[in-house]
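Note to self: keep these together.
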Amino acid sequence: MSYTKISHLEDHIGYWLRCVSNHVSHAFARKLADQEVTVAEWALMRMLYGQSPLAPSRVAKQMGMTKGAITKLVDRLIAKSFIVRASNADDGRAQTISLTKEGEKLVPVLAQLADSNDQEYFNHLSSKDQETLQRILRHLTTKFGVTSVAIE
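Structure:
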């Protein structure tokens, strides 16, 4: 049988991006798990940090998630006492979400975990290479309209 010559997995930039992304993401998820927080929960908490109470629909749009997915995420964080849901002061039918005091205290701890995870994986690169890599990745997300927060 004759096979058509095809490229190897390793010939694709996407393959290498996925390999690195998987390792970086899984390491970060393990660090967060020690704090009993998921990557998605961390992303939502970070978005709320330093903000006035926000409508869940606005958060869903900013994170590129459905309203149903945000509701489930909010419910999990409420159960952990990291955020609260309240009636909107201007419209009693609408709701807002915000961090609790416990959530506000936890976000800087989680941010340090994110920083140390990045350092672990990228500090061996020169500052110039880190800036170039970030510039290229930002360019690609802009070019292809990537608007959702990377949580998986």
